[in-house]
# Entry
Amino acid sequence: MPVKVFGLPTHILLLHVAVAGVPLVCLTTIAVAARPKWRARFGIANAVFAMVMVGVTYATQVAGQQLYNHAPYLQKLAAQHRGLGLTLVWFVAAVAVFAIALVVVSRAGYAEHHAATVTVAALAIAASAICVVQCIRVGDSGARAVWGNINVSGSARLGADPVGAGAGVPAALNVL
# Structure
């Protein structure tokens, strides 16, 4: 995977898909788990969407690791973000597993009150909620790594410039 695409770090481009897609797939999984009629109608599409988001999250993680290795000064700035980011794919994978399990349980002919259906639905809702929290934690740590030293209160000092990126430009945006 290239470090840059169209002059921008690949990680920056991919993370926008993950930032929008991961919470969306979690919300759709919660909706499909909570509504049996939606499970029958949208369950397969939701499971496919969840699997796609596992791939997108993994690609974002790989691109982030390449960016982290390419710019040595990021190893201080983004260490926490990297640590959290390496775990996100597992949370998204758990949501995908439960989205698939919802389809399997629904197609197996269990009634809505059946213990297996209720258990899988409850676990899907819990996994989705936890995944959203983890996604927020990862995103927040990344934003703090890039923008944490930026002062937007109107003073002349716009932020730290650890590698000579230029006045007011976050260093993490000018790595390549």
